[in-house]
Amino acid sequence: MNPLWPIRILFLGLCILGGYAVSQAAQYINDPHGALLGMAIGFGFGGLLIAVDEMLKGFSLRAFSATTFGLFLGWLVALLVDHSGLFGDSEGNTRQLIRLALFLGFGYIGMVLAMRSNKEDFSLLIPYVRFSPQNKPENLLLFDTSVIIDGRIADLIEARFIEGLVIVPRFVLLELQQIADSTDDVKRARGRRGFEVLNRLQHNTKIEVRIHDGDFPEEKGVDAKLVRLARNLNAKLYTNDYNLAKVAGLQNVSSVNLHEISHLMKAALIPGEVVQLKIVREGRDKGQGIGYLPDGTMVIVNHAQDQIGQAVNAHVLSTVQTGAGVLVFAEVKPEPAK
Q: pTM for this one?
């Protein structure tokens, strides 16, 4: 049961009692049906307000302030047009009808424009509640879908490498839900992992997570909405999408690509250094074996094809930087691995 219904029932009872009290104080106090009439009027008044309350169930305080502001601007424009002298020749009922049409029309247009706009479009004019107290510097972190699904951002936050107020747009949540509802098993698993990461972030006491309702219907893609929201909020955009990071940089939006950070954090190997790794598969050329370091760096080991599934010590011969990362070429060390 909705917790508001007990309050509504109490309010409806008070309206009925109020109607009865008014009927007893009215001039038709001797009317035998006066009390019933007053109670019926009170019941109708209370029921009307409850119906209006039910219709405005999804109407937030922010939306109310936006519509009020839009209505005020619309009426202000209507007042200026009314006093401009354009309708000075009109008199009597015609003048009143024109004035009524002006205020109704401009008031409606103002409210519609305010509702379609987002908070950032006129945040300088309306004193909205900020995300954090004004005496604290804001550090807003805007996450896209790829970062949420990746999950490494949660580890960085728990290790206090990243601090601030996490902003998750509602259109990102919608995209994440569409991935989780996909018929493809891999996409469905990725979407569910994203929701698990969000739940983990929300239960983390080291950081605060806010769901942002702002949207840009005129923007078609989620990436364009993210860049525009990051620019309006002056937030730092976290992503794994290389192209999105580049587009954000071209529009002077601060962004962080976690893939680039992971590449920068990989340990640099020097030729002649000895590394221990497990050969997991054969290489492209004859006699080569492939192994991986703990950070995911691929190591191509010569003369290791016959040692697949075993741990070996390998001398680093050279390293090659590629677009996907660093390739390491090594040679099997004669002594066995411990």
A: 0.47
Contact present, 181 and 193 (Cβ < 8 Å)? no
List Cβ neighbours of 151 (8 Å cut-off, separation of 6 or more): 193, 197
**Would you list the DSSP string of 175-200?**
HHHHHHT-SSHHHHHHHHHHHHHHHH
Is the predicted pLDDT of residue 265 greater than 80, yes or no? no
Hey, which residues does 300 pair with through a beta bridge?
290, 329
Question: What's the CA gap between 113 and 28, in Å, rounded?
Answer: 49
Domain residue ranges in the chain: 1-57, 140-263, 274-332
Q: What are phi and psi of 276, to 5 degrees?
A: -110, 130
Higher pLDDT, 326 or 316: 316
220-230 tens-digit pLDDT: 888 888 888 88
> What kind of fold does domain 140-263 have according to CATH?
Rossmann fold (3.40.50)
- Tokens 């990243």 found at: 162
CB within 8 Å of 253: residues ≥ 6 apart: 227, 230, 231, 237
The domain made up of 274-332 is a member of CATH 3.40.50.300: no
Q: Residues with Cβ < 8 Å from 100, sequence gap 6 or more?
A: none
